[in-house]
Design brief:
CATH topology: Rossmann fold
Number of strands: 7
Strand content: 15-25%
Shape: globular
Distance between the termini: 12 Å
Number of domains: 1
Oligomer: single chain
Number of helices: 7
Strand order of the largest sheet: 4-3-2-5-6-1-7
Length: 186
């Protein structure tokens, strides 16, 4: 008997004691359904986190988190599809990248956030969208870099990847870097 996606997510996250990393693979068609389940489970204990979004704007992330009753003061959002690297006026919990290609800017923002405050996790949404803007080799190196950063700062790293052709290739390249993998494609 197969367990539900919610049960697999819950079990996978519970297995991540300490600063471990998790890769979650899911079908593109189920992203809108499973993504909120993953966020609800990650944020359930009210821990502080950094949410890097290559799929949703800050407003969409804020709406999603608010609908899930997540305390927005506990989440720092990095909107990779935004237009400005400044904090949102009146919002102390968001940074916009100048463009999704700005790896140096993303790296600097994440380094400053990780050094400046104690976060419990980094949620990266999604490696598949990241691949739209960066080649496979760059993506692999950046994932490795982020995993080293999260380990160094004592954070969990949670990365979402879709089950498309290009992402499958990336998953094969980086899966050995992760402590756990939840495959929700089966």
């Amino acid at each position: 008997m197969t367990s539900s996606p919610a049960m697999k997510i819950s079990s996978g996250l519970r297995s991540l004691d300490g600063n471990k990393s998790l890769l979650v693979t899911l079908e593109a068609k189920s992203f809108q359904k499973i993504h909120p389940l993953l966020i609800r489970e990650i944020t359930r204990k009210g821990k502080k986190g950094i949410y890097v979004s290559f799929t949703k704007s800050y407003r969409e992330v804020e709406s999603l988190l608010t609908n899930l009753n997540v305390n927005m003061e506990k989440i720092m959002v990095v909107d990779a599809i935004g237009k400005s690297s400044e904090k949102v006026p009146g919002k102390g919990n968001c940074y916009f990248l100048a463009s999704p290609e700005s790896l140096t800017e993303l790296s600097i923002i994440l380094s400053q956030l990780m050094k400046g405050s104690k976060y419990d996790y980094l949620l990266f949404d999604t490696l598949s969208a990241f691949l739209i803007y960066h080649d496979l080799e760059t993506t692999e190196r950046f994932v490795h870099y982020l995993m080293e950063k999260t380990t160094y700062f004592g954070m969990k790293g949670i990365f979402i990847s879709l089950n498309d052709t290009k992402s499958k290739e990336l998953t094969q390249m980086v899966s050995h870097l992760f402590d756990a993998h939840i495959d929700l494609t089966k």
